[in-house]
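so my prof wants the structure for this chain in the tokens format not the other one, which i didnt know existed until like an hour ago. anyway here's the sequence
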Amino acid sequence: MAELTATKTRRERLGGRQVRFGATATLYTIVVIAILVLVNWLANRYNKTVDTTSNKRFTLSQETEKVVKGLKQDATITYFDKSSSFDQAKGLLDRYKNLSPKVHVQYIDYQKQPTLAKEYGLRFPGTAYVQIGPRREEAKAVTEEGITGAFLKDLKGVRKVCVVSGSQEHSLDETGSNGLSQFKTLLDRDNYQSQAVTLIDKTAVPSECNVLLVAGPQNEYTPNEVTAIKDYVENGGRVMFLLDPPLDFGHEHIAQNAGLKNLLQSWGVTLENDLVLEENPMGQLFGFGPEIPLVSSYGTQPIVSDLKNSFTGFPVARSMQIKSTDKSAVEQLFSTSNRAIATTNLTTNEVNPNAPSNKKGPFILGAAGSYNTGKANSQGRFVVIGSSGFLDNAMIGFQANRDLALNAVNWLSSDEDLISIRPKEAEDRRLNVNQRQMNVFAYTDLIAIPLIIIIAGVAIFLKRR
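here's what i got, hopefully its the right format
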């Protein structure tokens, strides 16, 4: 009798445990389902993403954020493709839509709505158009640069950068290391047209030029050219001067360009006849010698305000002194560290870093100024940098060089709202392995790991039995 009672008690306890276990499992299931429902509801209501890539590949740049968040009216992005291909653009276009409630996105199947496709002038499937008010622009590509470029065309129209030629300046069409072809491409992406102009046979800078670029002339400018540039700025024009030190040895023969120097001095920028050198540990990491000073010290001027914690490099650079005048206001853009030295011996490539004639840093390498024309809304602007090499094909891709160059153009053309850090280039992060490594991965992933999981499961099952 006692044994029957004990057996019944054990059964009751076991039954109670099963009931509690079932109730607990049911409760956990309900909680998990409720959490999943809540997460899905929040995801649909608040479409947010987290970019964990090292170079923020899926995050829109500061430039794009400034453009889109600054919209004053609604913008519509229209994407044409087959319905089955909409997803390839959806991720990018949704990021634009999430930036501002003024951005709307619509997807059109060009096969189902051919009339609408013809109205837009569709040439290829996979094309996006941005419309703001009555203006509609086709994106050059369904990329951040392409879509943001279409926004800029709608908002600002086309601006022109004119590069002076005729005195052995850097050329826009030159694809070698000393050319500016990559800078031309960057200007085009920022919706600036660029063209070469000569001032030797002109009495004035062409009126269609929004910005004039003097990119490292090696010969003297004529008085006619200097006067044309002077009148241009003092009547509200915008110029960027990139003037190298007047080296004179070997194959290097760079003119003093006294006319340009005197003009800049009248506006408050005095160019020194020196060569700045700096032994920088960071430069050595990049394989640079002392002839390429690296800069990480910036002023507060809008051109460089976003470049904090970034490096820029200036090959074969000269220093300058600045002061404001009664007609101009001049600000420092950036300077070297106090480790830099400057030599005034420009007739040899052999420099003694311990020569007593060397000057000690820090040195100002870049400045920006504005000229008071006396007319309302007609301020002249100029940027002076003591190195033209930072802009050429060999250096434009280094660290923040391209941001500095484009920010300077933005400021000169009164596009301050575009000054920012541009989209980063996509990194090639492929994994290269040999056949032996592939075999190790295959045996590990397809055999070893599944086998370990099966053995662990069987062991746990037997233990519980």
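also thought this was worth mentioning. The longest strand covers residues 328-335.
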